[in-house]
Design goal:
Layout: E1 3-7, E2 10-13, E3 16-19, E4 21-25, E5 28-33, H1 38-47, E6 50-53, E7 58-61, E8 63-68, E9 73-74, E10 77-78, H2 83-92, E11 95-102, H3 110-121, E12 128-134, H4 140-151, E13 156-160, H5 171-184, E14 187-191, H6 195-207, H7 214-218, H8 222-239, E15 243-245, H9 251-262, E16 267-271, H10 273-277, H11 280-284, H12 307-317, E17 322-323, H13 356-365, H14 371-385, E18 403-407, E19 412-413, E20 432-433, E21 436-442, E22 445-449, E23 452-453
Parallel strand pairs: 1-6, 2-7, 8-11, 11-12, 12-13, 13-14, 14-15, 15-16, 16-17
Antiparallel strand pairs: 1-4, 2-3, 4-5, 7-18, 9-10, 18-21, 19-20, 21-22, 22-23
Helix pairs in contact: 4-5, 5-8, 8-9
Bound molecules: N-(aminocarbonyl)-beta-alanine and zinc ion (2 copies).
N-(aminocarbonyl)-beta-alanine is lined by residues 69, 191, 247, 296-297, 326, 328, 348-349.
């Protein structure tokens, strides 16, 4: 078994940081050596198969991105990253585990989806991967399948109050699935938008000739997100089930989550870098058809209304508990262009799996969150939330050796010319981050080092997840 000794760095956890060396033996972390064990340390520095000098750098648990859509068929096309290209890009950015969504459509046998996701991801991934299951129309067969999936390590289910006719579930179906989740310990994840109301607003906008990408945002006003978030919380309350609200962008919707948490309800919010950095005015209403690059749901929100700053604040207060990417890339050419002349035909999604660790780290540099909170939001809480802690999300003896050496003195300039996602533009073109992913280990194997990719398709393994650590 190969041993790797990472020495001289500052190990960061969700509760703080300290100078320590890390010994990796095979696929696992064997020891975290505090200063004072220098004799043993210098011995290991001589005898380890590989030595990584982390002097002046942070040593952090590999990122866990709990929300990706690799090669997802959606919006009349397919997300442009395969499991191979998307997980390679994730590794470049310091993410060592993804949890991807298995698709289900009303009337289809649910268990067919998981088989096809295993076919796509098996042998293709550069890093470890798990699956959530989407549930569209819910009948008693679907409810029974939730038990089977939990037993197979698929312990979370995404439901949609948006996208009528695609993934939409009505309130009765949502309640039924939540009742099952409350019984078997699964976590219900909610796409909280009032899709029925949105469809009316979209039809009215198009009839007025409002066809540009920016109208995607205006026809999904914050009220549609807040209302659905509130309804989802009430349904979860009736079912005594935990609730995780995905890709939150409206400050009013997060305020509703905060109020529920203050009442003691087991409700969690997730946001994504696009909602922290991008806006309705500057991006969705970019000149010409360029706004199509930023079409995603929930939509980008107005900077004048202050959503972005509020989301950063809610990351501090833990009313938003996780940052994921909702990585769902569609190329501008031929994919986003499907919506020229009709914004409702633009495939919904933004690619960003490569940049989450950097973009959230910039929040540390800007004084918005602490170093420990960065690790908590990007690694530790998602690992706990999705039942793979302490195997993932922490640097501790016995944990998988998913480790990132991060250089706070480095710089990352994000650009489509240099990124590794299969995507012909970057939503963050030109953004400079005062930090850099230097070295990435996935289960003890160095997959990225000093600007070189050393990983391989098929290294990544399926993670059978346990129930969420946040159940009460
Ligand atoms: O626009 C988005 N979010 N696309 C991906 C599908 C989803 O709703 O998460
Ligand atoms: Zn969604
Ligand atoms: Zn998504």
């Amino acid at each position: 078994m190969t041993t790797t000794f990472i020495h001289g760095g500052t190990v960061v956890s969700s509760s703080g940081s300290s100078r320590a060396d890390v010994l990796v033996d095979g696929e696992r972390i064997a020891a975290v050596l505090e200063p004072g064990t220098t004799a043993l340390g210098s011995d290991l520095a001589r005898t380890a198969d590989r030595v990584v000098d982390a002097t002046g750098k942070y040593v952090v648990p590999g990122g866990v991105d709990g929300h990706t859509h690799m090669e997802m068929p959606f919006g009349g096309t397919t997300a442009s990253d395969t499991f191979e290209t998307g997980t390679r890009a994730a590794a470049w950015g310091g993410t060592t585990t993804i949890v991807d969504f298995v698709v289900h459509h009303t009337g289809e046998p649910v268990l067919d989806g998981i088989a096809s996701w295993h076919d796509k991801a098996g042998g293709a991934c550069a890093i470890d991967y798990g699956f959530h299951q989407i549930l569209a129309g819910v009948d008693e067969g679907v409810v029974a399948a939730m038990d089977t999936l939990v037993a197979e390590g698929v312990t979370s289910f995404k439901m949609f109050m948006g996208y009528p006719g695609v993934f939409y579930s009505d309130d009765g179906q949502i309640l039924r699935a939540m009742q099952k989740a409350s019984e078997n310990g699964a976590l219900v994840m909610m796409h909280a938008e009032n899709g029925i109301a949105i469809d009316v607003l979209v039809a009215q906008a198009l009839a007025r000739g409002e066809t540009a990408p920016g109208y995607h945002g205006l026809t999904r006003p914050w009220e549609t997100e807040e209302e659905a978030t509130h309804r989802a919380i009430m349904l979860a309350r009736i079912a005594h089930a935990p609730l995780y609200v995905v890709h939150m962008s409206a400050k009013q919707a997060v305020a509703t989550v905060a109020a529920a948490r203050d009442e003691g309800l087991n409700v969690f919010g997730e946001t994504c870098p696009q909602y922290l950095y991008l806006s309705l005015e500057e991006h969705l209403f970019a000149p010409g058809f360029d706004g199509a690059k930023y079409v995603c749901s929930t939509p980008l929100r107005s900077r004048a209304e202050g959503h972005q700053d509020e989301l950063w604040r809610y990351l501090r207060t833990n009313d938003l508990s996780v940052v994921a990417t909702d990585h769902c890339p569609f190329c501008y050419k031929e994919q986003k262009e499907m919506g020229v002349g009709n914004f409702s035909k633009i495939p919904n999604g933004i690619g960003g799996v490569e940049h989450r660790m950097d973009l959230v780290y910039q929040g540390v540099v800007d004084g918005r969150i602490s170093l420990a909170r960065w690790v908590e939001l990007c690694s530790t809480t998602p690992a706990r939330m999705f039942g793979c802690y302490p195997r993932k999300g922490v640097i501790a003896p016995g944990s998988d050796a998913d480790v990132v050496v991060y250089d706070p003195n480095g710089e990352t300039v994000i650009s489509a010319a240099t990124h590794h996602m299969n995507l012909d533009y970057s939503a963050y073109e030109g953004v400079r981050v005062a930090g850099h992913v230097d070295t990435v280990l996935s289960r003890g194997t160095v997959v990225v080092d000093a600007g070189e990719y050393l990983g391989r398709a098929g290294h990544g393994r399926f993670v059978r997840r346990s129930l969420s650590d946040y159940l009460i």
